[in-house]
Automatic annotation (TrEMBL):
It comes from the Eukaryota. PANTHER family: GEM-ASSOCIATED PROTEIN 7. CDD domains: Gemin7. This is Gem-associated protein 7.
Length: 102
């Protein structure tokens, strides 16, 4: 495996691990045309095409359980969680990359 492939694998793994830390957290989803919806982020599909959201509140009404297409979502803002990352995320070669840019 080349170093580029290793870097991509590391980034994907850590992105997915980070995403799972948000399971069950309140979130604000910005959709196309700046429509804001809120709900509790539960999980995403393995290919990241869908987000499962519970207690979704939209301008048109509320849904107990919903799937949002990731292609319709511009951004997701999670409420601040001070204990979300108890230990540093960056280590190994990613830490080296950050240090080189400083």
């Amino acid at each position: 495996m080349s170093s580029d492939e290793e870097a991509r694998a590391w980034l994907r793994e850590h992105f997915l691990r980070t995403l799972t830390k948000f399971n069950g957290k309140d979130a604000v989803f910005t959709m196309h045309q700046n429509i804001m919806v809120t709900g509790q982020y539960e999980c995403s599909s393995a290919d990241l095409k869908y987000f499962h959201v519970s207690d979704l509140k939209t301008p048109l009404g509320n849904c107990k359980q919903s799937l949002l297409r990731s292609s319709d979502v511009i951004s997701i803002d999670f409420k601040s969680q001070s204990n979300l990352f108890p230990e540093p995320i960056l280590h190994g070669f990613a830490k080296d990359c950050v240090q080189q840019n400083q």
